[in-house]
Amino acid sequence: MRVPHHINILFSPLVLKPHFLDSLYFIIIIPNLKFSSQVFGAHHLHQADCQEQTAIMRIPYVSNPPETKTEEHAAIVKRIEERRAPRPLQSLDLALLHSPHVADGWNSFLGAVRTKTSLSDDLRELAISRVAVCNKAWYEWKHHAPLAVKGGVSEAGLEAIKQDTLGERPAELSEKQWAVILFTDEMTRNVQVEDETFDRLREFFNEQEIVEITATVACYNCVSRFLVALDVGERNGTGPEAVTGH
């Protein structure tokens, strides 16, 4: 292994005198934490360095397939697998299954929001994707931005909601879509929604749809906060991935 030039200097006969040995640690180890872990076997790197080398969720995922201790827990896993099919269990599932009953309730709620409302795919996925941007939940963005495009949202429209601060409505997004995005943005960032923003939403949606939009935004704020707090999917500190094609 080649030793960096500044380390060679430190080990020169001129430097390595007895009175200097006591301070050698501070000269070599402290400024060169990563190097010291390789050469001197140091075990306590700065936390940021560790995260750069191996990004992992803050708690371990359960095994996949999950181990179950009771028939009740096995039934919970089966219900989650059935909702995910034909896809496998996701990182989020393997985090939640540390608490099977929480995972079960989560699965039911998410299943209803995703598949049992009257909302069109573009509106639902625009709302979810905007929540992801507001909360910097890039694992959520990774999974839902492509669904927005699949639901008919243009790449330019998706680019508009990817910005930290919303500007003017782009031509690629309809007034109806924009009303949902503005409502989502205020509800996520401020919790309280201004009357003007709510009145705009009412121009396009009935009571059932408003409840479903509100439930979707609330649900995916819950999801995003869980994802970011535990770094599920190891996406913290990255950014929104580009989404192309329909």
Structure commentary:
This protein is mainly α and 246 residues long. It folds into three domains: 5-50, no CATH class; 71-114, no CATH class; 119-230, AhpD-like (Up-down Bundle), CATH 1.20.1290.10. It is built from 13 helices and no strands. Helix 7 packs across helix 13 (207-230) and helix 11 (175-190) crosses helix 13. It starts with a helix and ends in a 16-residue tail after the last helix. One of its GO terms (molecular function) is peroxiredoxin activity. InterPro entries: AhpD-like (IPR029032), CMD-like (IPR003779). This is Carboxymuconolactone decarboxylase-like domain-containing protein. Residues 100-159 form the Carboxymuconolactone decarboxylase-like domain.
CATH topology-level fold name of the largest domain? AhpD-like
Q: Into which percentage range does the β-strand content fall? A: under 5%
Radius of gyration (CA) equals 25 Å
Largest sheet: none
CATH homologous superfamily grouping of the largest domain: AhpD-like
What keyword list fits this structure?
246 residues, mainly alpha, AhpD-like, 3 domains, 13 helices, globular, CMD-like
Question: What secondary-structure arrangement, pairings included, does this model have?
Answer:
Blueprint: H1 5-10, H2 18-28, H3 33-39, H4 47-53, H5 71-84, H6 91-96, H7 100-115, H8 121-135, H9 138-150, H10 155-161, H11 175-190, H12 195-202, H13 207-230
Helix pairs in contact: 5-7, 7-13, 8-9, 8-11, 8-13, 11-12, 11-13
Question: Could you give a quick summary of the protein structure above?
Answer:
The chain has 246 residues and is mainly α. Helix content is 61%, strand content 0%.
